[in-house]
Every structure is written in C-alpha cells, then in structure tokens.
C-alpha cells in the first residue's frame, strides 16, 4: 500500500478494509511463521498509518461506541501493533454486544494466550470451538494449554 493508495481512500472504513484485505485476513494461521512475517512487515511498513487509523477509529467510536465493525477493525489493528490491553478492551466490548462473535473470541483468546492468561484464553477458545468445532488453530492452542 502506497501513500497514494492511502490518499485515495477517503474514509476510515475503506482504509481499514483495504488493510484488512491485504494483510490481516487469514484463516487458522495465527501461530504460523507466515502470519508472523506479515505482522513484522505491517509493523515495519505501515505502523504510522495503522496508528493514525487507530486514532480515527477511536474518534469514530466516541460518536458510536457500539459500532462493532469499527471495534473489530480497531481491535485487530491494536493487536497487530502490539497494543494488547487496548485490543482487549475493544474485543471485550464486542463480546458484550455480540457474545458469539468469532473474530473477537479468536483474537481475545490469542491475546490472553500471549499474555499467559491461560484460563481466560481457554475459556474463549472453547466457546469459539462450540461455534466452529473444527477450527484448527483453536483446537491446537487448547491442546497446547491443556498439555502444559
């Protein structure tokens, strides 16, 4: 994504969707090397843009604090740039609005795992597995936690 691409996106939602489609959208690969390489690329190449986007989403959420789309984008982007506490707040808010939101359960479960809050992680992942029983990443992470 170039500065020209960013300038052409005139709304927060368009920019968030563009970043999501190019870098964030993955299926069951949260623990893979490929995913980590994407995170390092994003943080190195786009971190300033992502921080600006977080700020714009924060302003948007002041007007409409229950906008789950903005909360999801903000939570994912905070996760990418390592703002885990802020991501947890947004993901938890999503789950207060939509308790079976699979995106929020997955990301919050992963953040809890990274923070070594294993009981919280396993609770989110088991709930995710009740919704999507064959989620490979969630199954493997639950097994990893239970075996340790």
From TrEMBL:
It comes from the Eukaryota. TPR repeats lie at residues 102-135. InterPro entries: TPR-like_helical_dom_sf (IPR011990), TPR_2 (IPR013105), TPR_rpt (IPR019734), Ycf3 (IPR050498). Keywords: Repeat, TPR repeat. The keyword Repeat applies. PANTHER family: TETRATRICOPEPTIDE REPEAT PROTEIN 6 (PTHR44858), UDP-N-ACETYLGLUCOSAMINE--PEPTIDE N-ACETYLGLUCOSAMINYLTRANSFERASE SPINDLY-RELATED (PTHR44858:SF1). This is Tetratricopeptide repeat protein. It comes from Gigaspora margarita. The lineage of its organism: Eukaryota, Fungi, Fungi incertae sedis, Mucoromycota, Glomeromycotina.
């Amino acid at each position: 994504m170039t500065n020209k691409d960013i300038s052409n996106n005139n709304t927060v939602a368009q920019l968030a969707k563009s970043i999501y489609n190019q870098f964030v959208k993955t299926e069951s690969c949260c623990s893979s090397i490929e995913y980590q390489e994407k995170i390092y690329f994003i943080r190195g190449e786009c971190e300033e843009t992502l921080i600006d986007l977080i700020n714009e989403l924060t302003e948007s959420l002041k007007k409409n604090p229950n906008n789950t789309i903005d909360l999801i984008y903000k939570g994912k982007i905070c996760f990418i740039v390592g703002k885990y506490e802020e991501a947890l707040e947004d993901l938890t808010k999503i789950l207060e609005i939509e308790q079976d939101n699979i995106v929020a359960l997955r990301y919050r479960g992963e953040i809890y795992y990274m923070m070594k809050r294993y009981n919280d992680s396993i609770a989110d992942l088991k709930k995710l597995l009740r919704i999507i029983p064959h989620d490979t990443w969630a199954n493997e992470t639950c097994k990893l936690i239970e075996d340790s």
